[in-house]
Design brief:
Layout (H helix, E strand, L loop, with lengths): L3 H14 L6 H8 L3 H7 L8 E3 L5 H11 L5 E6 L9 E4 L20 E5 L1
Antiparallel strand pairs: 1-4, 2-3, 2-4
Length: 118
């Protein structure tokens, strides 16, 4: 998200003046889709997800993910921090997803990416 720093500044200023419906630590934690791994570790059912760190070759991670989810008909690759469907890519299966233009992220902005089957 291009305006993430401004949004977090706004959240901090607002939290200093009043109560946010979601406390500031929860807002910060839930902005990055890696919170799903925390929920999964706590036993909360989630959409199967895998995370690809910046600078990591995504193909081995995606292949392992696909091997673990043979029922998937497509996968969705998206930046971990983002809104709406910006920089989201969908890959139909059984074809192997093509390597993202920038290794390790789908947005080209250096962020971690996540994938999930549909």
């Amino acid at each position: 998200m291009d305006t993430l720093p401004q949004f977090l500044d706004w959240c901090e200023r607002t939290a200093a003046m009043t109560d946010l419906l979601n406390p500031l630590p929860v807002v910060k934690w839930s902005l990055d889709k890696r919170y799903l791994a925390d929920l999964d570790a706590a036993g909360v059912p989630i959409v199967p997800s895998s995370f690809i760190a910046p600078g990591t070759d995504p193909l081995p991670v995606l292949r392992a993910f696909l091997d673990a989810h043979p029922q998937a008909t497509e996968i969705v690759v998206k930046p971990n921090v983002g809104a709406y469907s910006r920089d989201v890519r969908r890959f139909p299966l059984p074809s192997t997803p093509k390597r993202p233009r920038t290794s390790g992220n789908c947005s080209g902005k250096g962020g971690t990416s996540s994938s999930s089957p549909t």
